[in-house]
Fold this protein.
Amino acid sequence: MRRFMGRPGAPGIAQGTVFVYDPDLPAATARQDDPRDAETELARLDAAIAMAEAEILDAREHVLEELGEDHARIFDAHRLIMKDETLVGQARQYIREGWSAETAFGGACQNIVRAFQSLNGDQPDRTGDLRDVQRRVTGHLRGGRVSGLGDLASPVIVVARELSPSDTASMPRDKVLGFITERGGETSHSVILGRSLGIPVVVGVEGLLTRVQSGDAIMLDGHTGQIVINPDAKTQAEFENLRAAYEALEAESLRFKDHPAETRDGRNIELLANIELPEEVEAVLSHGAAGVGLFRTEYLFLTRPDFPGEEDQYLAYRGILRSVAPDPVIIRTMDLGGEKVASYMEFPREDNPSLGWRGVRYALDLEEVFRTQIRAIFRASVYGELRLMVPMITRMEEIRRVKVIIEEVKGELVARGQSFRDDVPVGVMVETPSAVVIAHLLAREVDFFSIGTNDLIQYSLAVDRDNRKVQGLYDPFHPAILRQIKRTVKAAKQQGIPVGICGELPEDPLFTILLIGLGLDTISVNPFRVPEIKRLIRSITYDQAKSLVVSAWRYATGAEIRRAVGRQAARKFPEIADLLARDEEPS
Ligand code: PEP
Ligand code: MG
């Protein structure tokens, strides 16, 4: 038995068998010592490609049944690569020169990867898909099936160096009991997705891949970050007790799910839920959220081989709006770039993707793709209470341009004779320091603000949200963060527009109390946290929360705020002592 400590990613206890997911392949460089008959090798290559293709078709069908067409399409890109004439032609050429089928195919793949990499960032990075194809074909040449995450046969706990958002999006829900990554932070998008799907996650466990192998028994606690490999009976019993304790806490919170999210002194908070995939609407409804506060539409773009068309998007948006009506749905326009890229998107490799071609910048540069999305969203608007939100605003010009495009798209819909609602509120995410500083100006242009703490913390504190090494510096209680939230709220109130928050809230309930004290109208969290946050809101008063904010302003560090204000909160709100104690810092 061995124990490891990572960082909590998504809550819950999971127990099962390890599946090591390692998409990196050894480079194929050496010529075969024992040159084989070219005809035999060509036949082996053809057979392996055919088997890999059949496997992909199988996986596609399985994913289609489980998750629908959007997810199934990811496999089409892999089939296209596998049939690519340049790739296969080159592999055949190598075989004729005396190489084995494995080395020839690997070499041809590596050449293409290297060609992408040498193009100095001007070409799309398709290396992920190529590696996947190489892995499958090589696996068949070696006589074994190499599973990707899309075609897991039995329930496992996935252990990986890192998972991309599209890896996570294509995981079959019933086959992944939990996942653990060596890299990544709590606000990495794959972790957010795991959390939304209710899958326990631990991140940042350095060196784990060298210490586990597929087939090991493993337990993980997503609340604390604890991992145990090959646990003994005593440890298993300990985890079972923990599971029971968490479930009891959850059951206590679920009792409040149908009550209003109102403080004891009558301040109503609009408590909404964040989703990434249309299927998550079910969790939104069953956990008592008052609507969707953030639909990250980019996931519609990450699980297919090409940009989704207007009709596909329209159907997805309509489905969500209809299911949630009469409650509101905030649809965020595509926030692509950074780590949210798919191979077809023609993204150059960037040295600093978070500071690069992402969010609204990318959307405005790919205006046709963006217009298609806006058209689809407005066509769906008649089916519910839509609010439209634009991510990653850093300059006034961006929102002004988006508004012009919206008006033009409405004109197109009128010309087509298609109906839409003309009263859709248009808001922006406040998630960059520049947006905070010009919030009083932005407030004149838009109908609402939603603060994105995930990025606001990253950009304000200069701490990469995906970099495990600096996760200790990623501090929501930092006085600079609290002050920026206050400033944004003030700008919104002065202009009379509502202001909410939709970044991941830390597990620490104190932060939520401070948000309420700071005057936020809307809080949007992952659906599974809605009952607990509702219980918290119903246990406090707005007046007391405001007085905690006043106290927080007396301290100069995040740690001091957490400690001193945490103590006061425990005295003021004894009803939620269990919640407050759960996140106490170890002394
Ligand atoms: C945020 O940045 O806080 C946010 C909600 O957006 P995302 O996590 O998708 O970047
Ligand atoms: Mg963001």
